[in-house]
Design goal:
heterodimer, A: 116 residues, mainly beta, 4-stranded antiparallel sheet, 55% strand, B: 110 residues, 6-stranded mixed sheet, 5-stranded antiparallel sheet, 11 strands, globular
Chain lengths: 116, 110
Amino acid sequence: ETGVTQTPRHLVMGMTNKKSLKCEQHLGHNAMYWYKQSAKKPLELMFVYNFKEQTENNSVPSRFSPECPNSSHLFLHLHTLQPEDSALYLCASSQVLARTTNNEQFFGPGTRLTVL
Amino acid sequence: QKEVEQNSGPLSVPEGAIASLNCTYSDRGSQSFFWYRQYSGKSPELIMFIYSNGDKEDGRFTAQLNKASQYVSLLIRDSQPSDSATYLCAVSVHGNQFYFGTGTSLTVIP
């Protein structure tokens, strides 16, 4: 496997279900991200993990819960979602070399989530 | 509120022409600027990044940055039908905080 992988690629769930999205990066990067992409809206940064520590949480509802067990794996746990949460969820990774250095992100293929 | 603005298009150019994509940003502290290409149903793919004022060229692509005007652009020379996609402008202010525009849809007509 190369690059950034995500599973599942498609997910349909009811509002009472609990599911998890998985992301794995094979690039040796030390930062990982979750984004939400909805139609006609900019990519929304949800969570950032830098060296396995969460550094950003952009006011995301608690029904989304991230987990980063190591620098290569990132999960997004979902529970009691709403239909408006239906979107493409993208994982990305980057190599942060210094605190103020911003390095390009590489994206996974995404998980298309539909909440019924 | 940190904003990144792009004309949503669609922008149509004939094959072989130059496509010009523009992006403005609101935060003067922005440090890094990126252009991503996203095909329908696919994830964003990095095309160019630029950190300093001026031009940066990579093959048929040229990124232009003007921090005084808070403006970054992407030029695609000799446009090909395979360049038809949505182009996302992204800006990073500091750390790991990235802001994306809504994207410009480009169609290259054979």
